[in-house]
Structures are given as structure tokens and as C-alpha cells.
Amino acid sequence: MTPDDFEAVYRGTYERLTRYAVRRCASAQDAADVVADTYAVAWRRRDRIPGGGDAVLWLYAVARRVLSEHRRRDHRHRDARLDAEMADLYARTPGVEMSVIGQTFRALPDGDRELLALVAWEGLGHDEIAVTLGITRNNVRVRLHRARRRFAKALAANGVPTAFALEPVSQADSGTRATDGLRPPAPHLGETR
Amino acid sequence: MTDLLTTIDPARKGGDPDAPGARALLARVMSEPVPARRRGRRFLRPALVAVAAGLIVTVTPPQVVTSYANAAVEIHREGDQYVARVLDPFADRERFTEAFRAVGLDVRIEALPASPLSAGRSMGLMIGGTFDRPGEIGGEFAYGGVVLSADPEPKGCEPSRPGCAMVIRVPAGFPGSVSVRLGRPARPGEEYADYDKALGPGGPLHGVRLRDGAPVREVRAEAERRGLRVTYREIRIAPDGGLSFVDTAAGEKWTVWNAWQVRAGEVRLLVTEQRLSQNPFYNGSAPPPNL
Fold first, then answer.
1. Please, which of A193, B15, B219, B258 could form a disulfide with A18 given CB 3.0 to 4.6 Å?
2. Burial tier of A104 (Cβ tally within 10 Å: 0-12, 13-18, 19+)
3. Among the partner residues A43, A119, A152, nearest to B30 by beta-carbon distance
4. B35 and B51 Cβ atoms separated by less than 8 Å
């Protein structure tokens, strides 16, 4: 990958990668660090960046590792302009109703939260999540279903009932399989256990 | 159900890759040299090194070394580049010249009077010569895949603070000449070479917004409130977009588009009599960060 190609990747992914970082970092400085470190890693490994739409998925995967390492490391990148630009991307604090949802969401296990965020915020499909997390599509489907169920239960417990939570669990399970429809349900279960 | 989450999306919007901080990040990331690949060559290397070392002894003039240090600067080789750590930015210029010459490079330090904002910092590199392999990485001049740079390290640190030093990076074997324009504290009354820092952090007019122009009356009042002497130059715009400046006595209603720091306690406002449709210092593709 030539420097020009890298610059094209940077320009094509910066908007989405900054959003990814902002959604997962409490402070703009942390988000700026994650963005900076992610692109630094990408530059060093630029020969491995896949072409087209997969580039951003590859960067999400890098950012995910950077995030987990970031908590154990000192900040290295300090650019006041980047910090300020990143602070500008944060939404204002939502109202009370929203904060119940937010608190419930933040209390979920890390894995559930990441999956739900990739769907709701990054807007990724199952195939794209599979690439980002390095797991199979079936695995994504099952884990996502469980994450949704746990989220719904937790919401219901906090006084925010959802249609999903009101269904008996067994029905929710069979309903999901029915919508997937084309494949028989049993092998799915076999593969994922 | 995940649509509930969209209402609590912490990100209001995504970043703009053209914002100054984002552009600086790209330049910084891409200026990082990529380590040479070594896969599969490990066992071959000692032999190659031995042969190469033999060649160097016979071919290279004996006075060329790969590291050098004096009271002003310490230079050593890292891969395909020389890294020079400035120990004393205000040392005699000749000490720098001799140190770089010792490793086979033509690098000089040119000290220019500067405001405290730029003292000890590089105000740009002047690169001379003709090259067969020039290139650009992240908008910076590069040769053989190495960017020529003169920046404080660790990144963004204050050169006057302990642990922070100006580091000059030059590709090994670079055949051209490099002049590093280094800021030195201006003597009283001496004009600043870093005149364009007036609106930036720490500058005398930091916080004044001139991106969309502002009336002379307002800017002058603010400058005087800060105890600054104010002079004016009128902006002349050539047909090709080039700017020139002529001393003038501006009217109250003229428009200010930019400000320079002339010397300690004095600023120069760049003005036009008629209001323009856009700021002539801002051409849309490369916004000066401070406007």
C-alpha cells in the first residue's frame, strides 16, 4: 500500500473510526489516543489493510485491541487540537429516561455491549461483525441473540419493558430461528455449543 | 430493540479528516518510519554484514563516522536515517555544522529572532539541492522513504522543559543541503520571524476570531485592551491570488483578515477597505490553523 493509498484509507475511514472511539471512551483525550494509536498501528501494518469496505472493519478490529491495551498504558499522543476536535464529537448528556437505558447498557457484560454497539451504532451486519471480531457468522448470530435477551431482561428489571423481553424465552428462541428460516435449527445449535 | 440504543449514541457525529488536528495526526502517523523487513533473512545477515563492513573500510573515507556528539548536538544513526538530538539550541552554529559534516551531511542551523512561542523550536526546513529520489510523505519532504523533520520529542513537548529536546531527522546519505530555521529569543525591539503566531495559543491576540473578518474598530479595541501597539497593512490581491501588503492607516470600518506579531508588544493587522466575500488567507484547501 502506497502512502497515497494509506491517505485515502485514512480519509475514507476517519469519520467512522472517530465515532467508534468516541462511543467507547469516556474522555475526548482517551478517544484521541485510541484514534491516534489505531492509525499508527495501521501505518506500520499498512500492507495488511484490506481494500474497499473491509478496511474500516479491519481498523475497528485494531481499535478494539488498542482500546484494551490503552487502559494499561500512559498516554503518548498529546495534540490539543485533536483533543478539542474529538470533544466536539461527543453528544450532550441525555435525559433521565435515556440514562436508564444508558446505565442498563453500561452494566452489560463487555462482550454483549460490544456486539450491541456494533449493530446499533456502527450499523454493521452479521457478516461485518464476524470480520471485525474474527468469529464465525453463526457465532455472531447466537451471541447477538443472547446479548439482546440479556439486555431486554435488564431493561425490564429497570422498568423499561420491551417487546423482546415480554416474550417467553423459548418463543423468542424459536422466533429467531423461524426468521432465519432457510436453515434447519438443530445444526446451528450444534455448531455454537 | 437495539434502536433504543441509537437514542443514547454517545457520538453526535464523526470527525472531519480535514480538521487541523486530524491532518496533523495523519502527517504524524505517516512520518513514522516503517522498520525494514527481516523475515527469512536472519541467517544470511551476519555474512552480508561482514562483507559490507569490509567494503566500508576500503571504500568510505575514514573521517565519516555514524555517530558524533559535542556540546551542541548528539547524532547517531537509526536504520536509514540520522537522528540528531539538539542539546543546546543556542550553541555556536559552527558546532552543529561540524557535527553533521562528521556523519556526511550538510545540515546547518540558522537562528532567527522569535517570540517566546518559537524560541528553541524549528520554524521550518530549507532544503536545497537536486535529487533523483525526492518524495512526499504526509505532505512532508521525504527522501528514500524518510521524512526530513525537526520537531520536539517526545512529540509536542516544550523544548525549554527538561526531558524535551529538538530532534532533527535526516535520511542517511542525503545529498542535498538542509537549513533548520531555529527560533532564538529576540532581542528587545527586534522583529519576530514567527510573525504568524499572533492568533495561536500563547500569541498576543489568541482568541480573536478573524476567519470571517472583523471590523478594525473591534480588533483594535481588543488589542489596546491587551496593551498592544497596533499597525496596519492593506492586503493587495494579485490576479493569480498572490497577496502583497502595503503600510496603511486603516479606517474604523475596514475589515481585518489576519494579524501578525511584529515584535514584543506590537501587532500588525492585515486589512481591506471593502469587505471581501471570503478570507484571502483561507483558500479552502489549507486553512491556517489559527484564523
1. B15
2. buried
3. A43
4. no
User: In terms of DSSP bridges, do strands B81-86 and B73-78 run parallel, antiparallel, or are they unpaired?
Assistant: antiparallel
Q: Supply the DSSP symbol for A49.
A: P
Whether A140 and chain B come into contact, CB under 8 Å, resolves to: no
Check residue B19 and report its DSSP letter: S
Give ranges for CATH 1.10.10.10 in chain A.
94-193
For A81-115, give the secondary structure using H, E and C.
Answer: HHHHHHHCCECCCCCHHHHHHHHHHHCCCHHHHHH
Bridge-based pairing state of the strands B266-272 and B214-215: unpaired
CB pairs under 8 A between A and B: 138
User: How many residues in chain A?
Assistant: 193
Domain range A94-193, CATH architecture: Orthogonal Bundle (1.10)
**Which residue, among A41, A33, A42, has the nearest Cα to A83 in the 3D structure?**
A33
B-chain residues within 8 Å CB-CB of A160?
A: 4
Question: How many residues can be counted in chain B?
Answer: 291
pTM for the structure as a whole: 0.43
Q: What pLDDT shows up at residue B184? A: 86
Interface contact A89-B22, CB threshold 8 A: no
Interacting residues of A170 by C-beta distance below 8 A, sequence separation 6+ = none
ipTM associated with this complex: 0.75
B285 shares contact with chain A (CB less than 8 Å): no
One-letter amino acid identity for B95? Answer: R
**B163-192, pLDDT tens digit by residue?**
888 999 999 988 888 989 888 888 888 899
B168-227 residues touching A, CB cutoff 8 A: 201
